[in-house]
Amino acid sequence: MSVLRCVLLGAGNFGRHYARLLQTIEGVALESVVVHQSAAGDVRAALGIPSAIEVSTDAAAALGSSRYDCAIIATSPATHFALAEEALARGMHVLVEKPMVTSVEDARALAHAAEISGKVCMVGYQYLFHDAIRYIREELIERGVRFTHLFVEHALSPPRPDVNVLWDVAPHALSILHYLFGAPRIGAVHGSLRAQEGGTLPGTVAMTMCTENGPSLTLASSWYGREKKRRLTFLGEGMRVLFDESLAGGPLLICRDGVAPQVPAFDAREPLRRELDHFFACARSGARPLTDVSFGRRITEELAELESRLDVCAF
Question: Which of 225, 222, 218 is nearest to 165 (CA)?
């Protein structure tokens, strides 16, 4: 098996997990990590990056090199488009974190760039690689369970400097809707985006989105919660399914009317590792990724539509 040589762009709050995992995958060589100027002095020791892996602050120089097969992009969202487009133009397969880009125009341009390049371009919606979400699809939905509503609660994320909380959090919820229920079309939307007084970007969202051919979605999320929370509740006919990684017994709790709550057992692997394995398998075979650039374009278009239909106010 030939070795896929990789450059990682970004090693911050989430990129550090890529840095850890990329050093453990057979047939993959992490050769370079590009970090923000402010982190250059600390990242090697903080992340345990060995001396054989180059650490730099020059993304342009890294992408200008011809030695990399793959680029993993985990920088701030506003930089995603330019970096991904350049990596594709240089002949690299690309895995870019969500949100894929910050505008519909850039999403469509990136999809075009990926088509021209002939390379794999995949977006990191890691919850689609979570064994609990796959269990809901394979063991419940595909066996006839019908869900009518998804309620998503999320609190206490680091505030983003270049996208609001909707673009930060909603990609996960929308990607899950697409993965589990096809491609539900957006119907009525009610809710608001709120910014703290003096804040530059809205950090709280409360919205309900109806769909024409699938379950409705309620999203309640804030960067300013007192306690960290990430919980999904699927409501169906006589059934409620709770997905919460902080649950003591396991990440899923299934409650059926008249039956004791059930904690299903399954072999859970780290979702990000599953995502990386899928990306590299597609890079080797040329297969279309589950979360390819077209998938990312659809999510971007939906984010833009939702943002345009929500009230924006300060508190």
Answer: 222
Helix (H, G, I), strand (E, B) or coil at 51: coil
- Distance between CA 96 and CA 126 in Å, rounded? 11
The position carrying tokens 């309900």 is 208
Structure-block tokens of residue 211? 């769909």
CB atoms within 10 A of CB 259: 10
Among 78, 76, 72, smallest CA distance to 121 is for 72
Helices 15-22 & 271-285, crossing angle to 10 degrees? 60
The residues that bridge with 191 in the sheet, in sequence order, are: 207
Distance of alpha carbon 221 from alpha carbon 169, whole angstroms? 7
Closest Cα partner for 54 from 33, 40, 70? 33
CA-closest candidate to residue 89, choices 116, 111, 69:
116
What is the predicted pLDDT for the residue at 39? Answer: 63
DSSP-H helix ranges across 118-164: 131-135
Average pLDDT for runs of 10 along the chain of length 315: 94 92 96 81 80 91 92 97 98 98 98 98 97 96 96 88 94 96 93 82 95 94 87 95 92 93 90 98 97 98 97 79
Please give the DSSP secondary-structure letter assigned to residue 212.
Answer: S
Are 75 and 7 in contact by the 8 Å Cβ rule? The answer is no
Contacts of 256 (CB under 8 A, 6+ apart): 238, 239, 262
Cα 151 to its chain centre, rounded Å, is 18
- pTM greater than 0.85: yes
In the chain, beta strands by DSSP E: 4-9, 28-34, 54-56, 70-73, 93-97, 121-124, 147-155, 186-195, 204-211, 216-222, 229-236, 239-244, 252-256, 311-314
Amino acid in position 61? A
